[in-house]
Amino acid sequence: MCNSAITITVKLFAVYQEIYGVPELVLDFPYGTPVSAVCDRLITEHPKLSQWRDVTRFGINLIFVEPDTVLKDGDEVVLIPPVSGG
Q1: Please, what are the domains in the chain?
Q2: Is 66 exposed, middle or buried (CB count within 10 Å of its CB: 0-12, 13-18, 19+)?
Q3: Which pLDDT band holds residue 3 (cuts at 50, 70, 90)?
Q4: Whole-angstrom Cα distance, residue 49 to residue 3?
Q5: CA-CA distances (angstroms) from residue 10 to 1, 39, 48, 58, 76?
Q6: CB atoms within 10 A of CB 53
């Protein structure tokens, strides 16, 4: 039987952490899911995050990746919205 689901850890920063109130989430996704689906899921759960969809960068295991990069079981994902301030 092949793995039909993967488990990833999502590190939350800035507005994502403020909305969720925790530094990370552990989520399950179907095998073959692109990293952009993580952002989509968080926006589905908290629609006010939708304003950040087009400006959020994605990282997997400390490497910046394109939104269509496919997740693997055990990946650590970061969603990095623009940070303001100085």
Answers
A1: 5-80 (3.10.20.30)
A2: exposed
A3: low
A4: 30
A5: 26, 10, 18, 10, 6
A6: 14
